[in-house]
Amino acid sequence: MRRALLAALFVALAAGCAPPVKIGAIVSRTGAAAPYGRHVARGFDLAVDEINQAGGVNDRPLRLEY
Question: Whole-angstrom Cα distance, residue 38 to residue 32?
Fold first, then answer.
């Protein structure tokens, strides 16, 4: 029983079962401001990628929702 619990714990930790931290971003996707919105969105994506590569926030990855 004890070995099964330890095995399950290690599998869960290895799978990275920590849910991501969701962050919402509002950017223009259509209309006259769409070119600016694309650049802003790319900047957000780069920042989130850098944060995730450094370990995320409290060992949880970030996920950006547009």
Answer: 12
Between CA 29 and CA 54, with CA 42 as vertex, the angle to 5 degrees is: 140
Alpha-carbon distances, residue 1 vs 5, 13, 15, 23, 62 (angstroms): 6, 19, 21, 40, 35
E-strand spans in the chain? 21-24, 62-65
Q: Would you say 66 and 29 are in contact if contact means Cβ atoms under 8 Å apart?
A: yes
28-40, pLDDT tens digit by residue? 999 999 999 999 9
